[in-house]
Amino acid sequence: GSPFVADRFRHTRDCFGADWGSPSDLLNMTPIKDSKIVYAFHFYEPMSFTHQGADWAGILEQLRDIPYPYDSRRFEFAKQNNRDPKLQYFLQEYEKRKYSKSQLMADLKPALQFRDRYHVPLYCGEFGVYQLRTTQGDRHQWYQDVADLLRQSSVSYAIWEYRGGFGIVPEKGGEMDQAMLKAIGLKSTVKS
Description:
The chain is of the alpha/beta class and 192 residues long.
């Protein structure tokens, strides 16, 4: 590991909310009076977009073609391809919220409220989009929007994961996704 990282975080501890560690889960916590604790959360909203096709995510494995940001024409196409009655709740929620950067901010708000109420450090320890059934353009836009919101809110973050279905590098190796690097605010590794 990096000596900087090891030294910087040697005496800190992450503390996540209950359940899946979502932003709203933090609101169910009472902070511990300890300056070495960093309160962390995961961000995968909306799950109907970020986890479509994920075989470990139950019924979400069947979802396909959910766009980001919301686009009524593309969403109508998605509804035609997701007719299973068990998927209707996810489709209705997505359509009701019309996911965009502003809706993502609304979903992040509980974590920011927790931080501001208790004056504690906040860290987004995971966020990402499974790439099996998303377009690269939609995926990159979601990452860019979330990373922008986290930076604007002064929240440190880490994506889930470096290599694999959510990653910057394909699971079986290959080149880094340069557009993805840019989307999350990192510099390109390609020399011009």
